[in-house]
Amino acid sequence: MSAEGSDNVLVGVIGGSGLYHLDNLTFIKHVNPETPWGFASSPITICALPSGTKVAFLARHGPGHTINPSAVPSRANIAALKSLGVRAILAFSAVGSLKEEIAPGDFVLPNQIIDRTKGIRPASFFEGTSVVAHTAFGDPFAGKFLKWLETRVQKVLEENGSGSKLHTGKCIVCMEGPQFSTRAESKMYRAWGGDLINMSVLPESKLAREAELSYALIATATDYDSWREEERSVTAADVFKTLQTNADLSRKVAFTVLDELHAAAAEGDILTEEVGSMQFAIMPRSVQQKDEDRKKLSYILPAYFSD
Ligand SMILES: CSC[C@H]1O[C@H](OP(=O)(O)O)[C@H](O)[C@@H]1O
Ligand SMILES: Nc1ncnc2[nH]cnc12
């Protein structure tokens, strides 16, 4: 672990489209660790809550939204956050709704994912190494963390009085993009049981699991994608309409939950499922693992790969 860990930053926030900063928190500094997978999307902002609790913030597409979803350096993003000492990641994403009851402006805590990426994104820390690992991903989000968030996010939405609803237990489809879906695809995802769609939750969530980090996504609905017969299909302009309001509300949610989340992370409360989860995922023939690969992997999993 790098010297950056001494900041005691246990919680990382990943901001998506529209959420490029947490300017309701106090800026402390930028850090930009070089990981074995390169640099993160942008320097990571270390910022403080009024209590002094520090958190790390990373803009997924860079602060000027210059990185398209297929090119987000997710391995570097997750590795960099882990190198700071982060144990839990609260990620935000702008999503399309595949269900009538999930309206633009609503917030959602998905618990399942359907993968419609096209295999062009590096999706594992083990890729290209002599180490094989088969990570359990049946429940792609941290279950206890999701439960923990439910009441807290609900409270912020109610207090905000904007009418934004919270939906839980939903399934998000992650498509490759950058173009939006056809009408036929949008309808197919509904038939498959998809409730939401974005271009970012994979491989981010898989990599968080490989790094034994607790990961939850707050999906903020911006549009109805392209399945509604009578409506025109989604455009970026539709997405932009709700992006700013959703981002403002996301900042309120972050401001409200981060102190308590830091405390829970410090106690190990919501982290028990992920820590240790890779132990039986890694194929055990360590004699055949190259030293250079063990060194690389020790950056994210020192418990298994530090000699
Ligand atoms: C701007 S519309 C499509 C774009 O928005 C979402 O980004 P993020 O998940 O980072 O909020 C979606 O995944 C696409 O990348
Ligand atoms: N309709 C949509 N499809 C994919 N990603 C999105 N992000 C926001 N809206 C989206």
In helices, the fraction of residues equals 25-40%
Strand content: 15-25%
Q: Output the radius of gyration.
A: 19 Å
Please state the second-level CATH architecture: 3-Layer(aba) Sandwich
Instruction: Output the helix-strand order.
Output: EEEEHEEHEHEHEHHH
Put simply, the count of helices is 7
**Widest beta sheet: strand line-up:** 5-8-7-6-9
CATH topology group:
Rossmann fold
Distance between the termini: 13 Å
Classification by helices and strands = alpha/beta
Q: What is the CATH homologous superfamily assignment? A: Nucleoside phosphorylase domain
* Small molecules (ligands, ions, cofactors) in the structure: the ligand CSC[C@H]1O[C@H](OP(=O)(O)O)[C@H](O)[C@@H]1O, adenine
- Number of domain modules: 1
What general outline do the C-alpha atoms trace? globular
**How many E-type strands?**
9
CATH class: Alpha Beta
List low-pLDDT spans: 1-5
InterPro entries: MTAP, Nucleoside_phosphorylase_d, Nucleoside_phosphorylase_sf, Purine_phosphorylase-2_CS
Binding site for substrate: 199, 223-225
Pathway: Amino-acid biosynthesis; L-methionine biosynthesis via salvage pathway; S-methyl-5-thio-alpha-D-ribose 1-phosphate from S-methyl-5'-thioadenosine (phosphorylase route): step 1/1
Domain Nucleoside phosphorylase: 11-256
